[in-house]
Amino acid sequence: MRQSNGLPRSLSLVPKFILVAALAAITALSTVPARAVEYAGIVIDAHTGKTLYAASADAARYPASLTKMMTLYMIFEALDGGRIRKDTRVPFSAHAAARPPTKIGVRAGNSVTVETVIYSLVTKSANDAASAVAELLGGTEAGFARQMTAKARQLGMANTTFQNASGLPDPNQRTTARDMAILGIALREHFPHHYDYFSTRSYTLGTTRMGNHNKLLGRVKGVDGIKTGYIRASGFNLVSSVKTDGRSIVAVVIGGRTGASRDEQMTKLIREYLPKASTRSSGPLIASRVINRGAPVATAAISLPKVAIPTPDFRPDGEAVAAYAPEPAAMATAAVAGAAIETVSPGVGVDPVRTASIIATGGWVVQVASTPSKEQALAVLESTSSRAGNILSNALPFTELFELKGTVFHRARYGGFTTKTAAFDACSALKRKKIDCYAVQQ
After folding, report:
1. Residue 112 pLDDT exceeds 80
2. Which end of the chain is less packed: N or C, by CB atoms within 10 Å?
3. How far is CA 424 from CA 297, 354, 369, 440, 441, in A?
4. 238-282 pLDDT tens trace
């Protein structure tokens, strides 16, 4: 029943001032924007993977030019895979040349080197250069974007989808602060030999000097990269890598109202959470392997995201190695990764020497080959999985770099065996199929 004032009888008994206050609160709540905080952000201890801070870290956001972090990841992977060199020319199509600023302004039909593209992406965040290299590596920018998204999935970036290589506005191009932190850590761990590009303060192309948009370089102790970004829909974004006093973090801020306020927020996060980071490294956070054009084949339990994160095909120098007397590697039919392998002779070197593994799960591994090249190691793994998939269905294939006196070898291994018995049983079953192998504890 309603009273003459239009309120239900039950509400008419409530003191008026309480009712007014309650209605005001309801009205206020109904006007709160969907994004409850100004920033989406996260701080990850790059030594342990522990999340030190998170605010809307898994909320969907537009990456803007943070997208170019993945473009650079793909460039670095192509460099290490031998698909391109730093002096390879990158042609600019009419599509690439027409991208809106910021850009380096190369005319359609002209070209620059891959290294120039790298510098222009890191400093000026050039949209035309991003599109041009995307077309070089992916055939079309749309095709390259699909490759970028596939790579994101392999890295554990479950909530990221790329539609272009630059970060120019697209309603379907989404990411999260957590995913960008994963990418930042992957860039540091997988490509330390290329990572110095991110600390470039400026680069001169012809007579044009391109300054780095990352204003924290040289201003905040320990900051060594990585990337800024802005479109109207996203606000001002920044991923920062910080290393100092034995501590290391990767921090992300997405959604600043201005570049200055974004930088202020990032500086605040660094100052507050860097002292809380560990001084002891637990090893690589991203510790699985990829085989055959980026298909994920291994997982590692880490504390960063609750998903599997594979490494790139190439593992940089600096991996722990041990004394090695290689056995001769012989393959009846060998091919590069991705090509069909008919047979692999049992004479492929097995190299039964224990080393530190890149797989951080511990336990036992089964090694099936030790070859002179990564391509051969990948090919052996593909062939072994094809011939003995039922035996290795729960195993984790990966390759491992091994070096002695300047000579590099690549081990083909299967990890994930929790007991000695499981590893020895698997190896015995492989031998019955004429596949040479060796079981060893991590």
Report:
1. yes
2. N
3. 21, 15, 16, 9, 11
4. 999 999 999 999 999 999 999 999 999 999 999 999 999 999 988
Q: Which residues are catalytic?
A: 65, 68, 125
Show the domains of the chain with their CATH numbers: 40-276 (3.40.710.10), 290-441 (3.30.70.1070)
Give DSSP secondary structure letters for 14-43: S-HHHHHHHHHHHHHHHTS-SS-SS-EEEE
Position 372 scores a pLDDT of 80
* Residues placed in the known binding site for substrate: 227
Do 140 and 96 touch, CB atoms closer than 8 A? no
Strands (E), 51-104: 51-55, 89-91
Partners of residue 150 on adjacent β-strands: none
Tokens matching residue 438: 């060796």
Alpha carbons 366 and 381: distance in angstroms, whole number: 11
What is the full DSSP assignment across 174-192?
A: BB-HHHHHHHHHHHHHH-T
pLDDT surpasses 80 at 69: yes
Length of the chain: 442
132: CB partners within 8 A, 6+ apart: 90, 91, 92, 93, 96, 106, 111, 112, 117
CA triplet 420, 381, 134: central angle to 5 degrees? 130
